[in-house]
Write a structure and sequence with these properties.
The complex is a heterodimer of chains A (420) and B (284). Helices cover 43% and strands 17% of the residues of chain A. With 420 residues, chain A is of the alpha/beta class. In chain A, the strands form 3 sheets. Chain A has a 7-stranded mixed beta sheet, sandwiched between helices. In chain A, helix 1 (9-24) runs parallel beside helix 2 (55-74) and helix 2 (55-74) runs parallel beside helix 13 (326-345). Chain B has a two-stranded antiparallel sheet with strand order 1-2. The chains are: A alpha/beta (420), B mainly alpha (284). At the A-B interface, helix 2, helix 8, helix 9 and helix 11 of A face helix 1, helix 4, strand 2, helix 5 and helix 9 of B.
Amino acid sequence: MAPRRGTTRRRFLQSAALAAAGLGLPKAFAAETPDLKLKKPIKIGCQTILSGPLGGYGEFMRKGTVLAVEEINKAGGIGGSPIEVNFRDEELKVDVGVKNARYFVQDWGADFLIGIDSSAVALAVGEIMPSLDRILVVTHGATEKFNEDLVFKRHNRHCFRVCVPVYQDGIASAMVAKDLPVKRWATISPDYEYGHTSWKMFRAYLKKLKPEVEFVGESFAKFGTVDFSSHITKVMGANPEGIFSTEWGGEAVAMVKQARLFKVFEQTKAVMIGMGAAMDVLQGLGPDYPDGTWASGRYYFGYPDTPENKRFNDAFRKRWDGPPSYPSETSYTAIHAIKKAVEKAKTLDVPKVIEAMEGLELDRPAGKCVIRKEDHQAVYAVPWGQIKHDPKFPMPTLANLKVFPTDEYYRKPPFAPVEG
Amino acid sequence: MLFQGLVGLSEAMYLWLVAAGLSLIFGVMRVLNFAHGSLYMLGAYFAWVAFRVSGSFVVALLVGPALVAAVGWVIEFGFLRRVYSAPEAFQLLLTFAFVLMLDDVVKLAFGPVYQSPPTPAALSGAVVIGHSILPTYHLFILGVGTLVGLGLWLFLEKTSFGLVIRATAADREMARALGVRSSRLFTWVFVLGAWLAGLGGALSMPVRAISPGMGEFIIIEAFVVVVLGGLGSLRGAFVGALLIGLLHAYGLLFMPVFELALGYMAMAAVLIVRPWGLFGVREG
């Protein structure tokens, strides 16, 4: 049913204009970047969810990507070559994602692929990357199977990821939960790979940290759910003290609004929403976001307090008239990671760029980060925090930030199976 | 247990409002209006704008659906009317074109971010019995849905205009031969159908996330409801919506793995046993 759009005319013109702007710049701007005599332009294909109830989410990824491309092109591009970027709607469907990837590489001539929101799509597209012989940098899909199975165990070296995996949703969350006065947990989460895998991790790790906890109820909602009332009554029937949820985008907004009506926030001692600190959710809920709700994401605009993050926030606000959401940061970082790796490798030759990207260190807005050699996973810490209504900001913000050392919550090779 | 059912029924009310309009339009005009979900979406957005301007939920509920009815008039009078004599596939294509256009218009006008005004305080309470909770808003929705059902029934059964509508639905050629001006009737039926979808959208505004494309999910469920109940039958749409609501609520409770499939299984079963739907009229 979703409208099928690939490149709309407007977006095509936009990307063409971007490329043209890069080409037209005087040499003086390119002083910092040595001319590596690479092909011009370097093409990057980005796919994300751009339609339907979660489309607001993908819009933030598009904005982060465009900002990075504009900045880099203004400064001379990648090794002297301007970047041209193209967007396609992933629709969170495996077949569409695979088709987009093939289109990007085989028809449009992409040199790199970035984006992808759905874990299932990330796994499916990752699977065909070696045959397409291009590098994929995932900026949202979070399943641990991507870095642990696909890359580490099955040696798929074309796949990278610059966003935190479900370790944030499933393990860091358990580290927050162990100190909460909650013994009985239940979940309302999406009925697909991401929802199931993060709940499984949360249970396994929380049980280790606090053996007396119980998991009393679960309800998984299909993609496209607008009314969570039945899920809420079902789960609340088990009388839980805490709710763990990995709903996101417009679905998280709807769930929180309806949970408020059902007095979930009064009847339980804690509600945790793994993607609750995404800008679209903060803005979507506004005053309806209950104080004290625990939330996190793959980046939070208020953390860390570094010059890089401040600069990114300022540039983003100036370009788009509002603060960045986390897919903006991860897609921005993906483009910069590609630039750094290509300039290090001094070539677009895929195996050499892969080598350059392994172990690459980045000073990204979200903090210092290393792309692990073994599983091609970017390692950096993202805070959990509690929702607070601060009159200084037009939307709810996070307070009482909890940041854990990545060493304590990133699973490490050889990745023992998650028990439970 | 009981509350799970009531919650399911209240979810069914949105579906009923959309399905009622869809079924009414099909029954009288023989047009399968793909854009009906988009009208639901417009209802939510218009109500949201009215709420922003007036600050009153009541005004939003009155103005939102009325504006959607006006859009319905433009769609019927300006576009649909021109393709009545064309094959059904063309009518379907036209309404589908409206799905795409309205989604993009809304995206351009309001942005892709989810809008969600606060729930009115007067309806934010809840009935609590032990561990079971039923929000006031859900009771309100149940009330409104039932009232609309009663109102539609009275309108169709007790007024002369209702009689004309029923006559046209039963036998279009005969009604025309007896002097019914079907073109004007079609416009009003489409406007009424649009108003019903708009009302569903306006009611969803404070408790669901409003976003472009929100109509694309409800239209599929509304189709299931209408097929289940019988194309063109309002009673069928009502019972069908309640059935889907209950199947969803109890399905989640007792067999969560199959919950998604239950509604479609019910539809398939009806199609096999009674292809014209539970309350539909067998044609030919």
